[in-house]
Amino acid sequence: MTLVMPRSQSYVSSVAEASVLEVSVQPTEREVSDRLAAALPLLRAAADPVRWTVLHILATGDSSCVCDLQERVPIAANLLSYHLKVLRDAGLVRATRRGRWIDYALTQDALDRLGGALPGRVGADPVRS
C-alpha cells in the first residue's frame, strides 16, 4: 500500500502579468515512511483512555502534581505512574521534581505534534523538534 500525501505551494511571479503558478510536490515513499514511523508512537501513547484523560487534564491547565492527577484519574497509583511514564517516553509530558512531589505538564509542542501525527495533515511533521 502506497500513501500519497499531496503538497501544494503557490508562487507569484513578479512580472507585469503577475500570474500564479501551482506546483504540486509528492513526497517520496521514504518521507511517508519516516512520517508514519514518527506518528505511530505518539498515537499509540495517546490512544489509551487513561492517557487520553491525563492529556486532557494537562491540556486544560499549566501543570499538575501527581497527587492532583490521582484525584482526577480513578486508577491505582502504580498504574497512573506507568501511564505517565508512557507519555513521558513519547515526549508528550514532562516531569519536574518539587521536593518530594513531581509536577507534570504537557511539553511545549505536544499538541502540535499530536495534531501533526493525524492523517491528512499537509506539511505536518510529528518528529520531535
Uncertain parts = 1-6
* Strand ordering within the main sheet: 3-5-4
Measured on Cα atoms, how large is the radius of gyration?
A: 20 Å
Instruction: Give the amount of beta strand, in percent.
Output: 15-25%
| SS-derived structural category | alpha+beta
- Overall pLDDT level: 79
Number of distinct helices: 5
Largest sheet: 3 strands, antiparallel
* Strand segment tally: 5
What distance lies between the first and last C-alpha atoms, to the nearest angstrom? 28 Å
Shape estimate:
elongated
**What is the chain-wise order of helices and strands?**
EEHHEHHEEH
The amount of helix comes to 40-55%
Question: What can you see in these coordinates?
Answer:
The protein contains five helices and five strands, in the order ββααβααββα. The strands form two sheets. It has a three-stranded antiparallel beta sheet with strand order 3-5-4. Strands 1-2 form a two-stranded antiparallel ribbon. The protein has helices at 29-47, 49-59, 66-72, 77-89, 110-117; strands at residues 7-12, 20-25, 64-65, 93-98, 101-106. With 129 residues, it is an alpha+beta fold. It is elongated. Strand 4 (93-98) and strand 5 (101-106) form a beta hairpin. Mean pLDDT is 79; it is low at 1-6. 18% of the residues are buried.
